[in-house]
Specification:
β2 (about 15-20), α1 (about 30-45) and β3 (about 50-55) form a beta-alpha-beta unit. The chain has helices at about 30-45, 80-90, 105-110, 130, 140-145, 150-160, 165-170, 180-195, 200-230, 235-245, and strands spanning about 5-10, 15-20, 50-55, 95-100, 100-105, 115-120, 125, 160-165, 175. By secondary structure, the protein is an alpha/beta fold. The protein starts with a strand and ends in a 10-residue tail after the last helix. It has a single domain, classed as 2-enoyl-CoA Hydratase, Chain A, domain 1 (Alpha-Beta Complex), CATH 3.90.226.
Length: about 250
């Protein structure tokens, strides 16, 4: 069964692509592959902009390292980041509607979009350091691009969680609305984009984001190597255990 739903409005040329793995919407390689396939598919069917949304309490809690949803590769097949880069390669502007939490790789997914609409109750965290390993999903490129080097260092070093208002002040999200208005504002922005000349929009997007794909691809290769190295450490095992047990981690630097 698919974990991704798609609706294309032929009148507005806006596609809504929804992750349907609530309440936390953890992703794995299969979910990301479905997202990428659908994004490329709606572009071929005439969509001009995408609303990326999730069904459930949270936008995306990243990968669940305690279970099967934390799978990052198929046996002998592509790695999760080999699939994730396709979300950056697809040609359409994306507006992410971020309800609840966007955590870890879920934050990386939100930052793959061109714009983010959030609520004061939204939560954002790059919590990798609290798990004992390196950030991924291209965040080492996308996060500094949005919030600047110093704010990115703060968020990545500490792994702390920020609310929607703080994220909006930092530039991490573009629009802050009430929860009832979240999908509507995201759809409104996507419709405004889709109403512009589509060839011009794609051309402008390529000019402004053209280097991003190569930068993210290179970053993901480095992130993957560091993640694989640090996942062999006691600190990583302790970080995952501490999160699962909802207690402070006791890191030893080993």
């Amino acid at each position: 069964m698919s974990d991704v739903g798609v609706e294309l409005d032929g009148a507005t040329h806006v596609a809504t692509i929804e992750i349907q793995r609530g309440p936390n919407n953890y992703f794995d390689i299969d979910v990301l592959a479905q997202l990428a396939d659908e994004m490329h598919g709606v572009a071929e069917r005439g969509a001009r902009a995408i609303v990326l949304a999730s069904d459930g309490k949270h936008f995306c809690a990243g990968a669940d390292f305690s279970g099967a949803a934390g799978r990052v590769g198929r046996g002998g097949g592509p790695h999760l980041y080999d699939v994730a880069i396709r979300l950056f390669e697809q040609p359409l502007p994306i507006v992410a509607a971020v309800q609840g939490a966007a955590i870890g790789g879920g934050l990386g997914l939100a930052l793959a979009a061109d714009f983010r609409v959030a609520t004061p109750e939204s939560r954002f965290a790059a919590n990798f350091s609290q798990l004992g390993f390196h950030p991924g999903f291209g965040l080492s490129v996308t996060l500094p691009r949005l919030v600047g080097q110093q704010a990115a260092l703060d968020l990545l070093y500490t792994g702390r969680r920020i609310d929607g208002a703080t994220a909006h002040a930092l530039g991490l999200c573009d629009h802050l609305v009430s929860g009832d208005d979240l999908r509507g504002r995201a759809a409104e922005l996507a419709t405004e984009i889709a109403a512009a000349a589509p060839l011009a929009v794609r051309s402008i997007r390529q000019t402004l984001r053209g280097s991003l794909v190569d930068e993210v691809r290179s970053a993901m290769a480095h992130e993957r190597a560091e993640q694989e190295r640090l996942q062999q450490t006691d600190d990583f095992r302790e970080g995952v255990a501490a999160v699962g047990e909802r207690r402070p981690a006791r890191f030893t630097g080993q």
